[in-house]
Amino acid sequence: MSGVGAATLLAYVGAAFAEIGGCFAFWAVARLGKSAFWLAPGALSLFAFAALLTRVETEAAGRAYAAYGGVYIAASVLWLWAVEGVRPDRWDAIGATICLIGAVLILLGPRG
């Protein structure tokens, strides 16, 4: 694979927010006292997450999942800020950046 296409980037971003949204629905029920009705859209969101990861342009599922980890971490920091209203600090930003660099290395590193 010589590069990461737009479809892969969209799949990763969509998967990240689908997973975070799905997990947050469960968090909201278990930790915030929200109605159990939150679980249905949460489950659908987790289904969308798994389906989106199959759209990643790579020949190995494990590589797609490993690189996704970096995207997930960065998206989680954005969620922290946008949804939960907690401003990320410099350590959040530095950590997310390091993880994104790792994701790029996993996807674009030369293979023998």
Average residue pLDDT: 93
Q: What summary fits the major beta sheet?
A: none
Number of domains: 1
Instruction: Measure the end-to-end span.
Output: 12 Å
Strand percentage, roughly?
Answer: under 5%
Say how many strands there are.
Answer: 0
Percent range for helical residues? over 70%
Order of helices and strands: HHHH
- Kindly provide the radius of gyration, computed on alpha-carbon positions and rounded to a whole number of angstroms: 15 Å
**Which structural class should the secondary elements be placed in?**
mainly alpha
Shape: flat
How many helices? The count is: 4
Low-confidence stretches are none
Organism: Methylosinus sporium
Keywords: Cell membrane, Membrane, Transmembrane, Transmembrane helix
Protein name: YnfA family protein
Transmembrane segments: 35-53, 65-81, 93-110
